[in-house]
Design goal:
about 300 residues, Nucleotidyltransferase, domain 5, 2 domains, six-stranded mixed β-sheet, five-stranded antiparallel β-sheet, 12 helices, elongated
């Protein structure tokens, strides 16, 4: 997350956001003494870019932001969009288009009328959002860290991934059909298609440490995997994180050949609440890259075979 106070930086940021299919947007404003809301802060997030725009910073030209709002190739995602649209129209005489309003979508999916963002997150993810900064003075500078965290929290509701969106779309369709739609947000894989590839699912070590969760680590390098050596792709490793007591898999991280494909096994195990021992006792074809995943699971208890 970074705070934008310069027109050139705003233009650069909006150009990056414009490359995404959709951008999550929210605004903070003051309306105590004016008929029209006074825009104080704009929050935007897409494709890993998370930004807070200090809209009342002296000399800041908001034209790049308004251009993004008018870009018909980028879907603007709001929650309860009426107020945000009113602000943009008042300042620039444009109506953001196209728009996806998560509050309206929630109503269609049976979550009730005018459901708040916090309540929606609670119902779908069973997570609480701290909304105590909602009624603070957004015109006061400098903004506090608590205000910044609150603001960016309104637009970073999970990774923006095509496969995640596909599962969410299926869940919506199931709900509309009267079935029990569900998405397990703890088992959504992320892949970076570089060379070597990188893939991960679940928690990182940093997140587990921050949460105070006791865990065990198993790590296995591709240099010890025969298939990786045969194809000349021996850089990287597989790392498995498991609960120290229950052995439940909490996260898997892979750097190396076919990481984006190998991660699917970890996702499946986590979807069913499986353990590192479940992976370790599953027969993997030899010689195969998947053996590195098994060996990393064995390494949880220092039982890796080919090390």
């Amino acid at each position: 997350m970074h705070v934008v106070t310069d027109t050139n930086e705003l233009a650069r940021t909006c150009a990056i956001l414009a490359k995404s299919d959709f951008v999550a947007i929210d605004t903070e404003f003051m309306r105590e003494s004016t008929f029209w809301p006074d825009l104080c802060v704009v929050q935007m997030a897409a494709g890993g870019e998370e930004v807070i725009v200090d809209t009342i910073c002296e000399g800041l030209d908001l034209s790049p932001f308004f251009d993004l709002m008018a870009d018909e190739n980028v879907t603007k995602v709001f929650h309860a969009a009426r107020q945000d649209i009113e602000i943009v129209h008042h300042l620039a005489q444009i109506i953001p288009t196209p728009v996806f309003d998560t509050q309206i979508a929630a109503m269609v999916c049976g979550f009730g009328e005018s459901v708040s963002y916090g309540m929606l997150v609670k119902k779908m993810l069973n997570r609480e959002i701290d909304k105590t900064s909602r009624f603070t003075d957004w015109s006061r500078r400098p903004l506090t860290n608590k205000q910044l965290i609150y603001a960016i929290g309104d637009v970073i509701g999970g990774a923006m991934l095509a496969h995640k969106a596909e599962d969410e779309g299926m869940a919506v369709a199931e709900i509309l059909a009267g079935q029990s739609g569900h998405v397990n947000y703890e088992a959504i894989p992320g892949v970076v298609y570089t060379h070597p590839e990188m893939a991960s699912v679940g928690k990182t070590e940093e997140q587990l440490k921050e949460a105070g969760t006791p865990y065990k680590t198993g790590k296995f390098p591709f240099t010890a995997n025969p298939r990786a050596r045969c194809i000349g792709e021996a850089d990287g490793f597989v790392k498995v994180l498991a609960d120290a007591k229950s052995d439940k898999v909490l996260g898997v991280h892979i750097i190396g050949p076919m990481a984006g494909d190998l991660i699917a096994e970890a996702v499946s195990v986590m979807e069913f609440g499986g353990s590192a021992e479940d992976i370790a006792r599953t027969c993997h074809a030899h010689p195969g890259l998947g053996e590195a995943v098994k060996e990393a699971a064995l390494a949880i208890d220092n039982r890796a075979i080919h090390m």
